Amino acid sequence: MNELPAAPAAVRPRFAGTESRQLYRLDLKEGPTGLGDPDAPNIAVVVDVETTGLDRKRDVIIELAMRQFRYDDAARVTNIGQSFTWLQDPGRPLTEEIMKLTGLDDDMLRGRSIDKEMAARILRRADLIVAHNASFDRPRVEDEIPDAAGGAWGCSCVEIPWRHFGFDGRSLGYLLSQAGYYNGAHRAAADVDSTIALLAHEVGPGRTAMAEMVARSSQESWMCRAVGTAYERKDDLKARGYRWDAEDRIWCREVADRDEEQAWLMMNVYSPWARPTSAAPEWRKLTARERWA
């Protein structure tokens, strides 16, 4: 029986009070993990992309990786599926920076393409699609594979309160090392396996990181778009947790409690003394099917 790689019980996220620590190379094998029912009814797919850059309109996917796993009602990873990876020719030379970052080069990509039909089938089967930076991965995956658009997505970076469980930071490699493992080069398939290992990690007695993400991603929330705010209110909005959307030129924030946020905004941003050009913010309800798009 195949089991998830396990570090010794002494290994803990922070390694507090120790002068050294030992990391184990991650080797995530296909098959039952030895936990729960290998035919558990819930299916997740972890996705990762490498691109020619960060501009969604101009840059394109050069590598897409995904891997399915089953999880039970306690959100334990019970069965790990086959790893899929596709390379894609971007139609232009890669920059030196991207080649160093991804380990890919023009010769490796020349003439290659993503099997979009197969990728769409895998994604459509999933009850939950997971990425470690879903706000980056989801829009690019759905731009590339529109037949797979509209699924429920979760973000292992944001929707798991890593610091609450003793971890520092949220970058994938750093989290993995705090869980006791290391992985290879910065390639999409390696990042997918790292994400699955972190989701399977117990952050509390009998409680996996996956359970935290499933619980949070299933909750409804609101996207607040603070339209018509005065420039002078930018520091208040930033301190409140709003981020600047450069494309739409607006401050945005996802919140769980609309009434509480509305009250704060009306007092601090939309009051007459704050000189707004709109009477109130715009609201959009979010579920896992709309979030991160």
Any key phrases for this structure?
293 residues; alpha+beta; six-stranded mixed beta sheet; four-stranded antiparallel beta sheet; 9 helices; globular
Describe it for me?
By secondary structure, the protein is an alpha+beta fold. The chain has helices at 96-102, 106-109, 116-125, 134-144, 172-178, 188-200, 209-217, 234-240, 258-268; strands at 24-25, 31-32, 42-51, 61-71, 77-87, 128-131, 153-155, 181-182, 202-204, 207-208, 221-226, 243-245, 250-255, 282-286. The strands form 4 sheets. It has a 6-stranded mixed beta sheet with strand order 2-5-4-3-6-7, with helices on both faces. The chain has a 4-stranded antiparallel beta sheet with strand order 12-13-11-14, covered by helices on one side. A hairpin with a 2-residue loop joins strand 9 (202-204) and strand 10. Helix 5 (172-178) packs across helix 6. It is globular, with a radius of gyration of 21 Å. 36% of the residues are buried.
Mean pLDDT: 92
The backbone outline, from C-alpha atoms, is globular
Structural class: alpha+beta
Distance between the termini: 38 Å
Task: Set out the fold topology.
Layout: E1 24-25, E2 31-32, E3 42-51, E4 61-71, E5 77-87, H1 96-102, H2 106-109, H3 116-125, E6 128-131, H4 134-144, E7 153-155, H5 172-178, E8 181-182, H6 188-200, E9 202-204, E10 207-208, H7 209-217, E11 221-226, H8 234-240, E12 243-245, E13 250-255, H9 258-268, E14 282-286
